[in-house]
Amino acid sequence: xxxxxxxxxxxxxxxxxxxxSAGGTVLQTLGTATVSSQATVAKGCSFGAVVPxxxxxxxxxxxxxxxDTSKSVDVTCTKGTSYTMTLDxxxxxxxxxxxxxxxxxxxxxxxxxxSVSSSGTAATNYGLTLNLPAxxxxxxxxxxxxxxxxxxxxxxx
Length: 157
What we know:
Blueprint: E1 6-19, E2 26-41, E3 45-47, E4 66-77, E5 82-87, E6 91-94, E7 99-105, E8 112-116, E9 124-132, E10 153-156
Antiparallel strand pairs: 1-2, 3-4, 4-9, 5-8, 5-10, 6-7, 7-9
């Protein structure tokens, strides 16, 4: 754990000797053998266990935008791995309620963030900013409506 992606080799040399049990002296060397072992650490990235989900209340024609910065996504990549996380869309409309929203990575203010994993063992946390602009009427014509819009985050490494 914590190793950079790559192939690692280790050699162990063993010498077999006959030793005098009385004095501990070497009587003869019977042979020497070298054993090589090899391990490969593959590049990889994984998301944290919790997928962010929002539950917001938006009143039609509200005077100010509704912004939520309380959610984030965690990613852990093999040490030394360069990666980019990308949202499939920054702007969209919740279809059943007709509200426009934007979602971006807080640190970049855009649809993607890039980095290189420095530890390989600790997750890196990326904040998300969800924004519903002010003065939207929406398409809800009852007292309360709910809607769903699903975004996809892709990690490329």
